[in-house]
Amino acid sequence: MKNPYISLDIFSSPKTEKDRIERAWENFISGQNLVSEVRSLTYQSWERSIRHGVHPTKGRAPLVLSQDEIQEYQTTHTFFSISESLLPKLKESAIDSGHLIVICNHKGELLYLDGDASLKKKAENINFAAGTSWSESYVGTNAMGTSLATGVPMQVFAGEHFCQPVHNWVCSASPIKDPATQKVLGAVNLTGIWDVVHPLSLSAVVSITQTIEEKLQSQLKFEHFLLLEHYIETTRKNPSKIVAVLDRGHQVIKASTPWYDKGWIDYNNRLINSLSVCSGTEGMKDGWIFESVPLYHQGFPIGFMIHAISKVKPLNKTGFSTKYSFTNMIGKSPEFQSVIDEAHTMANLDLPVLIEGESGTGKELFAQSIHAYSHRSEAAFVAVNCGAIPKELAASELFGYEEGTFTGSIKGGRAGKFQQAEGGTIFLDEVGEMPLDLQAMFLRVLEEREIVRMGGREPIKLNVRVIAATNCNLKKACEEGTFRKDLYYRLNILSLQVPPLRERTGDVPLLLNHFLTKTCAEIRRPPLKIDDQDMFVLEQYEWPGNVRELRNFAYKVAIKANGNVITNSDFPKEIGLTKRIINYSATDHTHQKLNNKEQPLILTNPSSSQEESVNYPTSLKQQELHMILMVLNEANGNVTAAAKKLGIHRSTIYRKLGRNTKNESLSNNNG
Predict the structure, then answer these.
(1) What sections of 238-362 are H helices per DSSP?
(2) Which of 248, 313, 383, 555 is deepest in the core (most CB within 10 A)?
(3) Chain center to CA of 13
(4) What CATH class has 339-499?
(5) CATH for 14-219, among 3.40.50.1400, 3.30.450.40, 3.40.50.2300, 2.60.120.1440?
(6) Among 304, 160, 302, 315, which residue's Cα sits nearest to residue 246?
(7) What is the C-alpha to C-alpha distance for residues 435 and 423, in angstroms, rounded to an integer?
(8) In 287-377, where do the E strands start and end?
(9) Which residues are 224's β-sheet partners?
(10) CA–CA dist 425, 378 (Å, integer)
């Protein structure tokens, strides 16, 4: 047979071929390596199935996705939303030809299955249903699993399936590939009883996947257009920047001339190997630093902007410069990434920015990153702590003074912080601490874009961008009369809310590993590790001092730890207390039965004696349950608020609590 991807051609007898392949399968299972009896693709897949440890007679597809997870996948993955528009017609064709139409993801997990109702019932007998995984590693040779493993279309007929319970079926699948990355996104599959086998079934799914890939290609072209817009906007605002913009597959869409002159881009229009930098990283070559910044559209990544920065940079006139940029940002949580995206957008808008957040969240890091990414990056970045300047010196510090204004004043006068920041950025930290009389002067600077030095008469024009930060509630301060409303609204044109560390899901391990690596290098000790159970405790701790407190924690444990593994005995007392609080079993909780009205889930805290007596959760399921219960407690039992914070659906909380707790009954509700 010329086509290696189909099981049999139109001239073959399905019944004869079914019997022949069944014998070949029996020979293989009994240890006879008769390669010539089946197609090479089938034989290779059988061998992989053996290596995966799949049982040839008892292998069964496991249920791995809940309905919530299927729905989430359908709504967040582009390839499925594109496929969805084709499904009504595909379903009609499947029913007419005696097949089921199936779509799976890159792991072989079934996201959609439909077709003839009686055929669906038969399929359920072999656990062929939405949410199950038909990866080769679970059920051996099958059209979807094998096409995903090989990256090519595949028809699998009767006994070619590795697991005997599937020998009465025939499947034809074709993988869907991302045109940008060439990675397999999933597959389209037609499944029926063995006697409906036909080579055109494989042709049909190949045609379907080609249609899907053409639509993905059209979307990629739109992404390229957006990336080109990013490039044009960046170079228009700062022609001196040396940048390249890449798509998701690291294909160069547009780059400044030096990228080509210096040989940083190869003949395939890709970065040379030594410059393969990924999202949020930096590389170095020949005295140049390369910073990579991810670009997004409607929350989805579309590519990267890479900045080439000369390592040897002349100091600006004032000597004020930044130490940090967006590449120094550590955190992958959606809460943190969304703020980074906002900050990127604000960088070149040249309007005042107000950064709000608790102490220790990294407000100055954001301020410096905005400046470093803006067209003012070559000019000064001047930081002023408004709470640390003595009241009587504040005006002269900010606005400067003329000669003779004060006894002992410098000859010729002195430029204030605003003048020192000329052409660049002034960062006013703790702006809420600024005295009221100074606020009036500051407001005038913002409105008129000029200053008058203390003791002077002539206004001096300014070209300075203002970024302010505060850890207090400025709105409340306005109501209390300690901060001017007109100044607040003048400052709050662009605003960033930096989330506290306790709201940054999954970022504690990333940050801690970074700080531990850095600390161990500083104090010259071997690298330290921390086990999953103790890391879980740290993730539940509130971190009132935020990232600053976590950094200090890294120093403390690095100095205190005796071995190469950090244990809870190395933790400070306040974090040890957190361990005792979360260390209780699910049976220690009671709740109110929920009805259809919004009402909190009441979780009763254990007594201190209970806290000390129970064991720490040892399995991932227990840890997952404890995390849900902790977040519910923090949300005062409000399931909606807890689900939002955890990033899962409300029904997922009900299901997991119902599965893991005893003597509890939860009914669906609006909470």
Answers:
(1) 257-261, 334-346
(2) 248
(3) 52
(4) alpha beta
(5) 3.30.450.40
(6) 304
(7) 26
(8) 288-297, 300-310, 353-356
(9) none
(10) 10
- 281-308: per-residue pLDDT in tens? 445 556 677 888 888 887 788 998 888 8
> What CATH architecture is 502-582?
Orthogonal Bundle (1.10)
Residue pair 275/285 in contact by the 8 Å Cβ criterion: yes
* 305 close to 255: Cβ distance less than 8 angstroms: no
Say if residue 42's pLDDT is above 90: yes
Q: 205-216 burial, b if ≥16 CB within 10 A, otherwise e?
A: bbebbeebbebb
* Predicted model pTM: 0.55
Burial bucket for residue 311 (CB in 10 Å: 0-12, 13-18, 19+): exposed
Domain 238-312 part of CATH 3.30.450.20: yes
Q: Does the domain formed by 586-660 have CATH 1.10.10.10?
A: no
CB proximity list for 118: less than 8 A, separation 6 or greater: none
Angle 47-48-49 from CA coordinates, rounded to 5°: 90
Do 421 and 381 contact (CB within 8 A), yes or no?
yes
Q: By C-alpha distance, which of 235, 488, 492, 229 is closest to 351? A: 492
Q: What is the pLDDT of residues 219-255, one digit of tens each?
A: 999 999 999 998 998 888 777 788 899 999 999 999 9
The answer to whether 427 and 381 have CB atoms below 8 angstroms apart is yes
Task: Label residues 598-626 b or e (16+ Cβ within 10 Å = b).
Answer: ebbbebeebeeeebeeeebbeeeebbebb
